[in-house]
Amino acid sequence: MLRQMLLGAAVAMLTGCSSIHDGARSLVSSATDNIAPEAPDGAIRAVPMPAAALDANKTLTRIIFASCGHQNEDQSIWDQLAAENPDLILYVGDNVYGDARFDDPSLPTLKAAYMRLAQSEPFSRARAAAPMLTVWDDHDYGANDGGKDYPFKEQSEALFEYVWALPKDDPRRAHPGAYGSWMIGAEDGRRVQIIMLDTRYFRSPLKRTDEPGAKGKERYVPDPDPSKTMLGDAQWAWLEAELKKPADLRLLVSSVQVISDGHGWEGWKMLPADRSRLYTVIDETDADNLIILSGDRHSGSLYRKQGVNAHSLFEATSSSLNLPASKWRAESGESWVEPGPNRISEMYYDVNYGVIDIDWEKGAVDVAIRNGTGETMMNETVAFAHSQ
Q1: Which end of the chain is more exposed for a tag (fewer CB within 10 A), N or C?
Q2: Does domain 51-383 have CATH number 3.40.190.10?
Q3: Cα gap 277→245, rounded to integer Å
């Protein structure tokens, strides 16, 4: 019965929602016949129910992070994630693939993608097994490689808030864009700050390559223009304030890679002035015990950059849950592996997800990239200083 209700809700969202008022902060349409856009807790939503509630007082010891899950591909990986018994799941972008038509602000393709996700029983089980925090990347934002010039970003944000059933007091509702921060853990010495950045809503256009397809310059090249931004002024001010808050461990989520320098696809590399600004903000706020998590690349890898702060900067990239680069690499015969210089692991091109295990007694975090059956393909232990 619940499944029928869920599917009915998704269909209603897909077929009925014909418009979202310009500038609206919530889904506004007569099409949601039985489902109020701002429905009370417990109402049927387009994403499977029930969803595990986030407990801000819980001491976190295991966190999963993942990205790039195509709604039309095999969904069984979600059962593997649930079997890890995580305290929290971070779904860090390309959570569906629903690139919108640029002539239709009702976003039918994106709604159809979410409807398909609503039918996934493995995803529903994972959503019930652990709280899930989400942020978008381009394909669930609505446009491949999209940035601030995407014309339907307000409609897309309203849809994001609706399908993920964000509470009224959710930090992602407090401003334009999908960024937010959470401090989890009531016990001093065991507080984890989760910071999820929005690398889409405010991002300046990227500079197109002069050699399309060339290794390391595949689609874009770095743009030295200092006015170009990844986050926008408001998000930058917010991030600096967040990094000044006391925390024992910080997880900074960027849907696109921060440290990687070896490719010509999207990433902070393409806006070097803003990447330098990020490094400076991390350093000047003394935001130690910080780990960066990213997705987007359809491969998994680990990175470290020295000289950013007193302890160096570590990044783990996990991608994809069910659309790995191994598929098209095999089809094309691709064997090239992008160079570092900051990569400290091999690149893993098959299905993968990330696992963060926190040992509060030892002051250490093990960050692992695991394959579709749960086998660790690479890992790194990161020590951190914490109060007792």
Answers
A1: N
A2: no
A3: 19
Average pLDDT over residues 246-263: 97
pTM of the model: 0.89
pLDDT tens, residue by residue, 120-168: 999 999 999 999 999 999 999 999 999 999 999 999 999 999 999 999 9
Binned at pLDDT 50, 70 and 90, residue 5 comes out as very low
Helix or strand or coil: residue 121? helix
DSSP code at position 51: -
CA distance 250 to 69: 25
CB burial class (10 A; 0-12, 13-18, 19+) of residue 33? exposed
Q: If you average pLDDT over residues 76-98, what whole number do you get?
A: 98
Q: Are strands 192-196 and 180-184 parallel, antiparallel or unpaired?
A: antiparallel
pLDDT grade, residue 100 (50/70/90)?
confident
Q: Are 27 and 158 in contact (CB under 8 A)?
A: yes
Look at residue 16 and tell me whether its pLDDT is greater than 50. Answer: no
Tell me whether residue 362 is exposed, middle or buried, using C-beta atoms within 10 angstroms of its C-beta: 0 to 12, 13 to 18, 19 or more. Answer: exposed
For residue 204, is it left (φ>0), alpha (ψ between -120 and 50) or beta?
beta
- State how far the Cα of 221 lies from the Cα of 90, in Å rounded to an integer: 29
Q: Which two tokens stand for residue 155?
A: 């409609």
Question: What pLDDT is attached to residue 4?
Answer: 36
Domain borders along the chain are 51-383
DSSP 65-96: EE----TTS--THHHHHHHT--SEEEE-S-SS
pLDDT at 334 over 70: yes
Contact 179, 263 (CB under 8 A): no
